[in-house]
Amino acid sequence: MIINSRFFNRSELIGFIVLAAVLFVILPLSLDVFRLNLVAKYLTYAFVALGLVLCWGYGGILSLGQGVFFGLGGYCMAMFLKLEASSVENTKIQSTPGIPDFMDWNQITSLPLFWQPFHSLTFTILAIILVPGLFALIIGTAMFKRRVGGTYFAIITQAVAAILTILIVGQQGYTGGINGMTDLRTLKGWDIRPDHAKVILYFVEVVLLFACIGIAQFIRLTKLGRILVAMREQEDRVRFSGYSVANFKIFAFCMAAVFAAIGGAMFALNVGFMSPSFVGIVPSIEMVIYTAVGGRMSIFGAIWGAILVNFAKTSLSESFPQLWLFGLGALFIAVVLAFPNGLSGLWADYVQPRIDRLFASRKRKPGWNDNSVADGAPAE
Amino acid sequence: MSDEPNKGLLSPLRRKLLMGMAAVPAITMLPRASFAQAPATSAVNTTGLAVTDTEVTVGILHSATGTMAISETGSIEAEKLAIEQINAAGGVLGRKIKFIQEDGASDWPTFAEKAKKLLVNDKVAAIMGCWTSASRKAVLPVMEQYNGMLYYPTFYEGLEQSKNVIYTGQEATQQILAGLNWIAKEKGAKSFFFIGSDYIWPRTSNKIARKHVENVLKGKVVGEEYYPLGNTQFNSVINKIKLTKPDVIFTDVVGGSNVAFYKQLKAAGIDLSKQALLTISVTEDEIDGIGGENIAGAYACMKYFQSLDNPNNKAFVPAFKKAWGEKTVIGDVTQAAYLGPWLWKLTVEKAGSFDVDKIAAASPGVEFKGAPEGYVRIHENHHLWSKTRVGRAKLDGQFELIYETADLVEPDPFPKGYQ
C-alpha cells in the first residue's frame, strides 16, 4: 500500500484543526447543554455524510438509502436501551411486565426471540456494526456483481428504504411501529438523560467522529482511494486494467453503511429516541442533501454541510414556524445553483487561493499537493 | 392596560436604582396601584419559569408543516383564540399570556426537540400541544424529565397517565363504549365489522370495542382489518363487507385515507342511510376533505360537534369564525384544544401559582363551565369528565346530534376487563 508522505495536505490540515477546535473547544464552551445536545444530534448526520463522501463523492455510487443503515444502527442501540428501560419494576402496570411497552399494547406476551440477544451490550455494539455492514454487503453484492449501477442503484436503495419503513411500521408489535422506540433511559445503569450525561455523550461522539474521519482519510490516501476515484471517472478502464470493480464498490458501500450505522447508534443515545421517520426515503434524501451542500468531494465539507444544514433547520423553524420549509428549500436551491461543489467548492475557489498566496513566499516542500488529482471535481 | 406604565418596575436594575435614589422624592410618586391585584412574581413562580410581573409565557407545539398540518392547524387556531380571550378578560393572575409557537413538522423527534427547547430555553409555564399519539409519546419523557405541563387535545387510546400531562380529549373508553351501547340498542346491532388504520390508536380502540361487543353486548365481530396510514385502496375490504353483511361498520381510519374509503364505499353501492356505520375518527375537519355527499348518513361518536346547541357553543363558534374565517369548521379536537389554555388558567388561579407541581396537584376537580361542549371537569387521573355524543353526518358537512349520554362519562385510561 502506498500512503502519501503526509496524512493531510495543508488545506486539509487547516480543515482538521478548525473542525477540532470548533467541536472540542469552542462549541462546548459557548453553548448551553441543550444546544450542545442539538449539535450532537447534527453530528450524527455527519457520520452519514462522511460515508457518502467515500461512497458517492469518491466512488461515484449514489445511495439514496443511507437512512436504512442509519436506522439499523439506531434501532440496534434503541433495542438495547429499550430492554433496559423495560425492567419488571418499570413496567408493573402492564399485562406482561418486563417487556417493552409497545409489545404489551400489541398483545405480545413474551419477548420475541430476536430481541433476546439485545440484553447484552457487547452483542449490541457488534450488531450496530455488523447488521448494517452485512446488509450492505448483500445489497452491494447483488447489485454490483451484476453491474447494476448509477441511477438504477439509486432507485433500488430508495426502494429498500421504503420497504424497511413499511416493515417497521407494519410490525409494530416487534418494532414500536410508527411511534418508534421512545423513553430510552439508561445505558448499563448509567442515566443518559441528565445534562452531564449529554456532555459526556457529546464528547464520545466527537471522538468517534474523528476516528471515522481518520479511517476515511486513510482509505482515501491509499491505493484503494485512487482506484475508487479512477472507477468514478472511467469504470471500464479500471475493469480492463484487471481490477474487480464490483469488489471496490461493495467495499465503499459497506464503509458508508457502517459509518451511517454508527451515526444512528449515537442518535439513539443522544436523542433518546428512534423512529421509522429516520429510515425512509425523505430522510435518506436529506442526508444526500447535507453532503451535497457541504461538498461531496470533501470530508470536512460534508461534515460542515451536515452541521450547518441542521443548524439552519433548527433556527429557521424556531424563527418562522410556518414558513421555514420554504426558506430551507430556497437555501438548497441557491447552494446547488450557485455552488455545485457545495461549501467546500466555495472554499476551494475563493478562500484557498488567498491562503495559498499567503504561504506562497515560503519554500514549497515537494509533494505537498500530491492529492490534487483525487481532489478534483469529476469530469462529467 | 393599567399595567403598562409599570413595565419592568421590579426588575433588579430598577430595584437597585430605587434603593440608591431613595432620597429623591419623585421616585416615591411612581404609581404602584396595579400590583394590588396581581400577586408578586416571587410568590407565584418559585421554579424559574418565564413569568414576569406583567407576562407569562406558554408554548404552542403543533405541526404547522408536513402531513399533520391539516389536522393540527385547527388546534393551533383554537389555542390562540383561547389565549386571546383570556388576555382580553384580564389574563392569568394579573398577567397577560404570551405564547411561543414551535413547529413539530409532523416529525416525532422534532416534537421532542422543540418541547425540550420550550422547557429548557424558554422556560414556558405550560405547553399546549401534540396531536398524534406518536408525537405525545416522543414528548412525554421530555415533559417528565424537565417537569413541564402539557395540555394534549386529541382523543387517544388511553393506557397512559402522567403528572405532567392533562388530556383534554377523550380516552378510548369514553369515546367508544357509549356509542356502541347506543347503536346496539337503537339499531339492534349484533354483528360488527372493524376497519382501522394500522397504528396504536385504532388497534387499541378496536381491542376495547371488540371486548365490549363480545362480552357486554353479546354480539359478534365478523371482521377486523387494518390498512397502513395513507392507504387509498379499500376495495377488498369493501367486498368483504358486502359478503359478511355486518349490522354495523365500525371505523377508525385516519387522515387522508378517509377520503378514499368513503368515496369507494359509495361507489360500491353501500348506502350509508341503510347500512349503519359508526366512526370514531371523522370530525367536521375530515368531512371537509371527504365531501358531505359521500358520508351523509354515517354516525360519528365524539364529545363535541360544531352544531351543538348550548349558550357556550353559540358564543364560541362565531368567535372562532370571526378570528379565523367564515369557512373554517370546528372539529372535536379543535374544541378540546380550546379547553387547554382555559383549564390551565383556571388551575393556575386555583393553585395560586404557576409552579408545575402545584398545578399538577390542583388540577383534579378543576371545572370549566364555559366549555363549548358544555361542562368539563378534570379527574384525578388528569383526563376530563365529559359526555359522549353520537352525531349523524349531513350533506352540508355538519353533524346532527342524535344522542348524548345523560351524565358525564368517567375517564378510565386503564380499563379493567378491556386490556
TrEMBL record, chain A:
Matches recorded under InterPro entries: ABC_transp_permease (IPR001851), ABC_transptr_urea_perm_UrtC (IPR017778), LivM-like (IPR043428)
The organism's place on the tree of life at top rank: Bacteria
Sequence intervals crossing the membrane: 12-30, 42-61, 121-144, 151-174, 199-219, 240-267, 287-311, 323-343
Pfam families: BPD_transp_2 (PF02653)
Topology in membrane: Multi-pass membrane protein
Presence of the UniProt keyword Cell membrane in the record: yes
Annotated keywords: Cell membrane, Membrane, Transmembrane, Transmembrane helix
Subcellular location: Cell membrane
NCBIfam families according to UniProt: urea_trans_UrtC
Stated name of the protein: Urea transport system permease protein
UniProt organism field: Bradyrhizobium ottawaense
Taxonomic placement: Bacteria, Pseudomonadati, Pseudomonadota, Alphaproteobacteria, Hyphomicrobiales
UniProtKB/TrEMBL annotation, chain B:
Gene3D superfamilies: 3.40.50.2300
Record InterPro entries: ABC_urea-bd_UrtA, Leu_Ile_Val-bd, Peripla_BP_I, TAT_signal
Domain of life (superkingdom): Bacteria
NCBIfam families: urea_ABC_UrtA
Full protein name: Urea transport system substrate-binding protein
Organism: Bradyrhizobium ottawaense
